[in-house]
From TrEMBL:
It comes from Pontibacillus chungwhensis BH030062. Keywords: ATP-binding, Kinase, Nucleotide-binding, Thiamine biosynthesis, Transferase. Pfam families: Phos_pyr_kin. It catalyses: 4-amino-5-hydroxymethyl-2-methylpyrimidine + ATP = 4-amino-2-methyl-5-(phosphooxymethyl)pyrimidine + ADP + H(+); 4-amino-2-methyl-5-(phosphooxymethyl)pyrimidine + ATP = 4-amino-2-methyl-5-(diphosphooxymethyl)pyrimidine + ADP. This is Hydroxymethylpyrimidine/phosphomethylpyrimidine kinase. Pathway: Cofactor biosynthesis; thiamine diphosphate biosynthesis; 4-amino-2-methyl-5-diphosphomethylpyrimidine from 5-amino-1-(5-phospho-D-ribosyl)imidazole: step 2/3; Cofactor biosynthesis; thiamine diphosphate biosynthesis; 4-amino-2-methyl-5-diphosphomethylpyrimidine from 5-amino-1-(5-phospho-D-ribosyl)imidazole: step 3/3.
Amino acid sequence: MRNVKGALSIAGTDPSGGAGIQADLKTFQELEVYGMSVITSVVAQNTLGVKGIRHLEASFIKEQLESVTNDMPVHAVKTGMIANSEMIEAIAEHLRPLTLPLCVDPVMIAQSGDALVDHKALQAMRDELLPLATIVTPNIPEAAALTGRSLESEEDRYDAAKRIVHDFGSSSVVIKGGHLDGEATDLFYDGDTFKTFTSPRFDTLHTHGTGCTYAAAITAELAKGKSLNEAVSVAKTFISAAIEHTLEIGHGQGPTNHWAYQNTKRKGEYV
Ligand SMILES: Nc1ncnc2c1ncn2[C@@H]1O[C@H](COP(=O)(O)OP(=O)(O)O)[C@@H](O)[C@H]1O
Ligand SMILES: Cc1ncc(COP(=O)(O)OP(=O)(O)O)c(N)n1
């Protein structure tokens, strides 16, 4: 068997291609990692919002997980949209003995404002999934929901990061700064030291799936055996290029450009 690095995304679908499983697989491929996927919910959505959701049964999610992990080379896992506590418990039960690098993207609300998970899922996320996480990647509203505290100031963000690691058990956290003003600065904490990752803020409406893409890039790099610091650094560069070189498609908040990173890397500039 060739030395192939594989990453598994456990998430919902986005037929418009910009978020969810579809964004994850594109990102894995662009970072030269073999992508695999387990679907939690089938979502009818596009750049204008969510029209409908059909959840798969937790038992069938477990069957999908067994199909992949019993056969394929999985070196890192990402969780995205997981809509309810039954799903979270089934996924955590399967992942716990595997002890694989795990990136938890605590998806709760779509950019359109549509809720993607139920309120019981939040407690299950804290109790079952965060203790297994190598890294968790909340945006500002998600970090506030997880900690039950508002994140108004920089100090609040530092406190929230410490709480997520020391109280909820995640090995590390990056609180993403897309919802802030000014530069796009993300706050990383590994239980010992803080580090910020900053890029210019690009003036664009098209940020559908930024969080999904960013977390998938972290997962791909972890699958390759990179350190947390290296993985977050690559993911930041990846998502910044994907936003800067937006495709301007869709009639609402369009997707990011998943090939911008490699295009820029290959040619020194985006052409
Ligand atoms: N307009 C923007 N310009 C540059 N980077 C951005 C912009 N919006 C978000 N980002 C970056 O994209 C990544 C995803 O963050 P964010 O959008 O906050 O997550 P989510 O999509 O989960 O809400 C982070 O690295 C963030 O700093
Ligand atoms: C299936 C699915 N998962 C996640 C999302 C969230 O994507 P988006 O709405 O663009 O928000 P961020 O990824 O930017 O947090 C989704 N819409 N669908």
